[in-house]
Amino acid sequence: MRPNINISHTLNGRVKDYAEQQDMGLEEAYQEIIERGLETVEHPDKS
Fold first, then answer.
1. Separation between Cα atoms, residue 24 and residue 8, nearest integer Å
2. What is the DSSP string of the chain?
3. What are the pLDDT digits (tens) for 5-47?
4. CA distance 30 to 45
5. pTM for the whole structure
6. First vs last C-alpha separation in the chain
């Protein structure tokens, strides 16, 4: 499932590849990636 946002097919493909590598569904992969990204943006000093 691709979120209802304008992202490239290349980026969507990368998320699909990640989901496959992690043995998870596409929706779960998007959620994880978005949550990690938000954490990084909200707390840039954390490593």
1. 21
2. ---SS---HHHHHHHHHHHHHTT--HHHHHHHHHHHHHHHHH-TT--
3. 888 999 999 999 999 999 999 999 999 999 999 999 998 887 6
4. 23
5. 0.77
6. 30
